[in-house]
Amino acid sequence: MKVARFQFDDEISYGVLDAAEDGDGVEIVELTGDPMMAGYETTGRRLPLEQVRLLAPVIPRSKVVCVGKNYADHVAEMAGETGDGTAPPEPLLFLKPNTSIIGPDEPIVRPEISERVEFEGELAVVMGAVTKNVSEEEALSRVFGFTCANDVTARDLQLTDGQWARAKGFDTFCPLGPVIETDLDLEDVELATRVNGEEKQRTSTALFIHDIPKIIAHASQAFTLLPGDVILTGTPSGVGRLAAGDSVEVEVEGVGILRNPVR
């Protein structure tokens, strides 16, 4: 199912996308509570999807764990700038603060102190259970679902700082959405990124260096993963600059399209 977090009038709720009862369009079936934290039921209210505002599909209560250098073509792409073309033997982890999260159609804001802000389209994992020291075999059982993500990066600051916290962590630098798909076959999921309608990135999860069970198990050795925590699984080659006025889209097969303007 596709789960969304949405605003209708002044109320914020979770809901499940469903075909309209009259067969025309899509409706959102309102849920009680937070489906990542506990059980839930429907309230019985159904709203046309076009009448609600979709928000970031997780409440940014905890953390975003990210994986760097998880596609060989992106490792090669960045080697000319970093001088390191070696793929990491284990998932390379870093964090984004929860304050970086925004939802679909919210603007990515280029900070004045950076002259080179870039997009990085990614598949994101949303955790659904408290997870610590989980095995690769059990890792997927702790997942709630999957969504689209954009690991926006101030590339000039990443290259000069020597570590990635500031370059990856600005407010608005973690767009997520538009929904969480709870059932996704991870063997060969296509991902594409477009800027102003022009395709810049295309890849498949079949090309991961480290697959999702390994990433979750590795991350859980360091951090207790909480329900609603997000894991970004890495970007392929094709990353590039964003300018004010651009519109960037990240599309994940089976999930949907995440769109954000840039200012």
Helical stretch tally: 5
Order of helices and strands: EEEEEEHEEEEHEEHHEEEHEEEE
| Morphology call | globular
The CATH architecture term of the largest domain is Alpha-Beta Complex
Structure summary, number of beta strands: 19
Number of domains: 2
User: What oligomeric state do these chains adopt?
Assistant: single chain
Which class do the helix and strand fractions yield?
Answer: mainly beta
Can you tell me the CATH class of the largest domain?
Alpha Beta
Estimate the mean pLDDT confidence: 96
Sheet of most strands: 12 strands, mixed
**CATH-defined fold name of the largest domain:** Fumarylacetoacetate hydrolase, domain 2
Share in helix: 10-25%
What Rg do the Cα atoms give?
Answer: 18 Å
Q: What percentage of amino acids are in beta strands?
A: 35-45%
Cα distance spanning the termini:
33 Å
* Unreliably modeled segments: none
What do you see in this structure?
Residues 1-57 form the Rv2993c-like N-terminal domain. GO terms for molecular function: acetylpyruvate hydrolase activity; isomerase activity; metal ion binding. It holds the Pfam family Rv2993c-like_N. Residues 63-263 form the Fumarylacetoacetase-like C-terminal domain. By secondary structure, this protein is mainly beta. Helices cover 14% and strands 39% of the residues. Strand 2 and strand 3 (26-31) form a beta hairpin. The protein folds into two domains: 2-54, SH3 type barrels (Roll), CATH 2.30.30; 63-261, Fumarylacetoacetate hydrolase, domain 2, CATH 3.90.850.10. The protein starts with a strand and ends with a strand. The protein is built from five helices and 19 strands. Strands 1, 2, 3, 4, 5, 6, 7, 8, 10, 11, 13 and 16 form a twelve-stranded mixed sheet that branches.
